[in-house]
Write the structure tokens for this entry.
Amino acid sequence: MALSALVEQAIERTLLDEQTIQRRVVELAAQISSDYADVDNVVLVGVLKGSFIFLADLARHLDVPHSVDFIALSSYNRGTVSYGAVRLIMDTRSSITDQHVLIVEDIVDTGYTLDYLMRNFEARRPASLRTCTLLSKPDRREVDVHVDYLGFEIPDVWVVGYGLDYANRFRTLPYIAALRRDVYEKE
Ligand code: PRP
């Protein structure tokens, strides 16, 4: 089946179109470039997999020297005994000690992932540590996390596109769309 046909079937509405996202990415990059103007190098740490598209766009608009690294985490789902626990499955390639680190996320939902990451990274004594996330679902928050650079607040609906997936699909759509409820509630 063609991807366009799958999209047609599964998507309810566009939440953020391509132009809106790109405009906001440029604004965020300008703010970050200005805040880090006196810094030799910013280490952007993307949280896989969801952040890869946002990070790629954001980084290409930055006017401050930067390097790129990645981390992969796995979280336990609702209904499991370890709900809320997060596990590191792939660490950064380079040490972040004494570095100016900016964590780049696609979305903050319950907050468990970012909370874990902040604690884990703080223990390694970076020169500074901030967070940038494209989306936030405030209605879903279970732990308080501080976001320094936020793209958009969105309602509690399942979103796909621009890095975000449903069952590993739809990550490469250039816009962010709400999935039809019957698609994810049938499980
Ligand atoms: C998503 C997202 C964040 C996390 C946020 O990752 O990219 O890392 O969930 O959720 P939380 O605030 O409730 O912790 P996901 O586990 O879906 O993996 P993926 O990025 O590989 O799709």
Remarks:
- The chain is about 30% helix and 30% strand.
